[in-house]
Amino acid sequence: MSDQGLAVSAPYAALSHRHDELATRGWTVLTPEEFAHDVEGVLHGFGPIVPQFNGQTAFAITRKPGYEDLPYSQSMNGIGPHTEAPVYGPPPRYLALHCLRQATCGGGHTGLVDGIEFLRSLTSSEPELREWLDDHPVEFVATAKPGEPDQRRVLEYILTPTASGDIFRFSYNQFHYGDVNPSKQALEQSQVADSDTPLARFARLGEAYFVEHNTPVLIPDGCLLIWDNWRMIHARSRYSDPARHLTRYWLG
Ligand SMILES: [Fe+2]
Q1: How far is the CA of 77 from the centre of ligand 1 (A)?
Q2: 37-50 burial by CB neighbour count: b if 16+ within 10 A, else e?
Q3: Can you give the pLDDT at residue 13?
């Protein structure tokens, strides 16, 4: 009888190892059995679910027409290394992807690497560049949806200390094309290629670090990937299976 009482009062008590994993490694994967298909219920244990660019709390990551040439979530294209929503103050603390149906084509991985570790590596390998980052804020721009006029724009440091923890920001699309969600026209000219600015060098070093050190995660059907968005850089590999369907959540 007492066991039943415990199960009802603390349905997710067995998830402490997932919280530990998230804190130590920066990401974790929950199996469907661990959250009994109550995605929003289990996410509340990690943080409040907050609205995304379009005002919704659950965003479909699946192929939609009109984005075939863009590195956008609702295309099947690869998306370069980034932290989510760097134009938000603060950006979502955690990101979650619930996999309804994973790609079966060999692509569609979520790559993850520790951005704070990357910055630490620069302290010894590129001390002047690392100092430059502390002295120079970077403009981040986000068009809510490619091709639409709504834009958010902020000036933020790559690493921002706050009372709740350090916030790391990185965006391949921003550094190369001047927008987190670039238009087709913006994609024609990279601001990083052939550029010697400190930000361009930082972008190239970050990309190289990601390629060398990232863990590619192919979230199994039904599972829930959660990562620390103030710490981890993520990216998506290109895929060709149109049935791939995930739901994205932002946690405050
Ligand atoms: Fe993302």
Answers
A1: 12
A2: eebeebbeebbebe
A3: 59
Domain count, the chain: 1
Give residue 111's pLDDT. Answer: 98
In a domain, 10, yes or no: no
Which pLDDT does position 7 carry in this prediction? 43
The pLDDT, as a whole number, for residue 144 is 83
> How many Å lie between the centroid of ligand 1 and the Cα of residue 86?
10
- How many whole angstroms from 51 Cα to the centroid of ligand 1? 15
Q: 15 C-alpha vs ligand 1 centroid, how far in Å?
A: 25
* Alpha helices (H) in the chain, listed in sequence order: 2-9, 16-25, 32-35, 39-44, 115-125, 127-135, 172-177, 198-213
Residues spanned by the domain of 194: 15-251
154: three-class secondary structure by DSSP = strand
Q: Ligand 1 centre and the CA of 7: distance in Å?
A: 35
Looking at the chain, the whole-number percentage of residues with pLDDT higher than 90 is 89
Please indicate, yes or no, whether the overall pTM of this predicted structure exceeds 0.90.
Answer: yes
Return the CATH number at 167: 3.60.130.10
- Kindly give the distance from the C-alpha atom of residue 143 to the centroid of ligand 1, in angstroms, as a whole number: 14
Let me know if residue 76 belongs to a domain: yes
For the chain, first and last CA: distance in Å?
37
Residues by chain with Cβ below 5 Å of ion ligand 1: 84
**Residue 104 falls inside a structural domain:** yes
Residue 165 has pLDDT above 80, yes or no: yes
